[in-house]
Design goal:
The protein is an all-alpha fold.
């Protein structure tokens, strides 16, 4: 503490550093009726889904801002809506990891190290490419979530299974459907 601050003063203690009290990739014991191995497995799988969901959220926001063309307004709105739903999943996934005694991946730089979703170009892509990129990211997450949900069920981890099935998978499938329908080439109706 600085000699210029007195105890009980309103001056914040700035520039503090602290020891890491739990390493990423570890789980502490919580009395929740799941084994260490089950909780470790769930945290690893959930963190992978979480990292990819972070990236999907960011892709949605990027495309929301950069979308162009005749369907701009409709896509601008749906992409923002989907981004908000993905952000809710980010929070829910992170809280599940924490409730299992793990450490949720949180820093964007860490997320970028463990994501399996390819990085998009820095510039603006054509709308069909944007939507295809979002669909591919959804599929990556959905494949991982289906696999992790099945294994979580086998391990008796009903909470992780429920989160993956009822929230990650159902949200992802619905959003993928909305996006895919924007890529259908509809025939012109002639009078």
């Amino acid at each position: 503490m600085s000699t210029h601050t007195t105890p009980g003063s309103s001056q914040p203690w700035l520039h503090q550093k602290g020891a890491v009290i739990q390493e990423f990739g570890t789980v502490k014991q919580f009395p929740i009726g799941l084994s260490y191995d089950t909780r470790m497995y769930a945290c690893q799988r959930l963190n992978q889904v979480l990292a990819n969901t972070h990236i999907l959220y960011s892709l949605y926001k990027k495309h929301h801002w950069l979308v162009r063309g005749a369907t701009f307004y409709q896509l601008h709105l749906v992409l923002d809506k989907h981004a908000g739903e993905q952000l809710e999943l980010v929070d829910t996934l992170a809280e599940r990891v924490q409730s299992l005694g793990g450490v949720a991946v949180a820093d964007p730089r860490h997320v970028s190290e463990i994501t399996s979703i390819p990085r998009p170009p820095d510039g603006v892509e054509e709308v069909p490419a944007m939507l295809s990129r979002l669909l591919e990211a959804h599929e990556t997450i959905l494949v991982q979530a289906h696999d992790a949900a099945a294994r979580s069920a086998e391990l008796g981890d009903d909470g992780s299974n429920d989160l993956l099935v009822s929230q990650v998978i159902r949200t992802g499938e619905l959003q993928a459907w909305f996006l895919a329908e924007h890529l259908v080439d509809t025939p012109l109706v002639r009078a």
